[in-house]
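Why predict the complex rather than its parts? Because the way molecules touch one another can change local conformation, and only a joint prediction can capture that. The input here totals 851 residues.
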Amino acid sequence: MQLFVYFSQIIGKGILDSQGHRVGRLHDIAMNPNSDIYPKASDLILRRGGLVREFARVSWEDISHIEKEIRLKITGDRIKFFREMPKSDFTLRRDIFDQQVVDIDDQRVVRVNDIYLLRVDNQLYAANVDVGLRAIFRRLGWTGLVDLIVFLINPKSPYLTQEELIPWKATQILPKLGRMKSVLKLEVSKNKLNSIPPAALADIIQDLDLFARVTLFKSLDGALQNQVFTDMTLAYKVELIEQLGEEEVASLITNIPADEATDLLMKLPREKSHHLMGLLGTETNKKLRKLLGYAQNSAGGLMTTEYLYLRSDARVADAFQKIKDNINFPGTIFFLYLVDDDHKYLGTTSLRRFFNVDPQGPLINTCYPENIHVYTDDSVEQVALLLERYKSSSIPVLNKQDILQGIITIDDVLEELISLAWHQYKEKL
Amino acid sequence: MSFWKKAKENKALKNVLIFLAMLGPGVITGSVDNDAGGITTYSVAAATYGYPILWTLLPSFVVLLVVQEMNMRMGACTGKGLADLIRETFGIKVTFWIFLGLLVADIGNTATEFAGVAGSMNIFGISKYISVPLTAGAVWILVTKGNYKISERIFLMFSVCLLSYVVSAVAAKPDWHQVGLALIQPQIQFDKDYLIMVLGIVGTTIAPWMQFYMQSAVIEKGTTMDDYKLALADVIIGCVATVAVAVFIMVACAATLHVNNVVINEAKDAALALKPFAGALASAVFAFGLFVASIFSATILPLATSFYICEAFGFNAGIDKRVDEAPQFYALFASIMVIACVIILIPNAPLIAITLWTQDINAMLLPVVLISMQLMVNNPEIMGEHVNNKLQNAVGWSTTVVLITLTLLLLVIPAFDLFKAH
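Output of the joint prediction:
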């Protein structure tokens, strides 16, 4: 008895009852998703008839063996056939075979050409999925011929020895329109995707079709949703929020960095963004409204209003406390900005500058000697120039009255400059 | 206040703008449909039978509309391409044979398009050994350096160029009263050549690869069921435009060539033959239309074919990928282009035989694709609540049955001929 069997080798096989009468063919295998690491087969789904098909379910206890033939322990008259396919949460043919799945290890979307089943104690477990070219030829029945041709051309070709298998634990099945609810019940999905870095997950999600994209995104937990959403490109963000409920969108906009949120709101039709603004909490609303007033490629449009600041009379110890209180702050925590009672900008200090200073000393003495800053209507090029000249990674943005409005960090500038450079490059082509 | 702001405040104008933004897949697919092969069939039919054969365009319109609506709905509803859906529903064997047929047929189709390029440029005195390689180079650049937005704009411009056939038709000074009558009064003859011609017209309007293209374009555009009405309008406009262009081509040929008993075999002949009857302008415009249509389809066909094949077998695909990221995709695309060009550039290539063989393969593929589509569009596992309703099913299945009967006839009639000859 073989230890491994390919799903393609048993699908469509004739099924005999205990007396050896043929009762139908193997149509699908229902799996028990919650069993161990590898899902265990729970039922066989039988099919009979040509034009008018009928289906039946046979539970695993009633199977005698699966060898060259599939033999049952029960007689044929005990099997009830129906026009409707029996309902199951998760089956091999419907959910995996020939379908797209996410390969968690390589972080890409692949199409399954075959499934590698492990046979232990007359039980079947889904062990790997096969995404290789060789599996395609095996299913067409051409393995021998193609192997021979490849061998004649190049006997050392990796095609002959390497199987492209993905272990089950690194395989994420994708939701489909007709049965969204049943797939969402599979809690498996969440744990697996959580191990992918948000930026890679954003790439994967962008590769999927619209429907799978929305469902998969919804299955992520809140914090991961925010990170993945932040990492998606603007066009995909716009497409995605069209498919989400108002509350979900409002929550996303509140929880992603303010500058990303304004970019998104600016991309939307005016009515829609007004409507969304109305749904946001007052704090977020105020913050975004301010940013939305500036041109997109000006310092004002680029800045974020998320920064840490202290009054001019603060001590070094207050700065440490401020950082500790804001350890989960979405913006930078390495730079602190000093302002007076009118929020007028006085200076910038950083963790590096006050780390070894007497905690009781005044914080203002640790500020950078050069007072570098930009104004809200300065261009992105000016910002980049200053950051480069002073080898700094962030810069405060003031209005004409020297009131601190926000800060720009180097990654925001980089993003803007890369897209500028890219446009120029494209035009040259 | 800028024009756009004003426009956005005006409700009616705003709807027009939204609609224009949705325009695309249907119109482009419709225009690709009037490719070199289509123009050839239309002009030969009209030159041979005159106005009375015009009625065939009306059933063609209905069939086109029904099939494209299904494709649009499947795309909008599932967000998946037709190739994806066929692979996921029917497994690898069915998929493999469909795509092998599609690949061979599309190489033949692409060769026909390059024949159209060669023929039309020939009228302007340019040798095919110059026009074909230059066109292929231009197509390659457009595909590898462009992106979807740019391509779509260029394609829409192409679609507008197809209106040049209106000029040819008007210059031919047809009897419009007779044209109108011929469109609504079917005059059916029961001889073999006539039937083959009718089948040819319907068949050239519904090519199998179009269904794949249409659905991918809908997805690329990001259409969902919320945009159904606008997308439907796009499909309808596309079908109307397609059939309207066909009407003008046929009118131009019927009013001149048929009246004067000129017999032609190729679209190029039509352009040449128009000159003495309708003037140099009508002839040049006709040739220009043929050139645009050919280059348009020569771009889309190889690209689309490579895309579906990669989609179905799980290879990376898309013009936004680099060559090393999607090697199978670029290899397929390049081979289709090269084989098609070589076929045309071989002196005394059996072009007519290639065209006939391509039509036969298309004819065999069509029933398979249509039945697959009908089965999927009725499957709630795929379509959810948007499965065909009773009316859609009645129209869909009868269209499928009629088309299959027609195609079978198309395959069987030549066989009978052989029989008689012996």
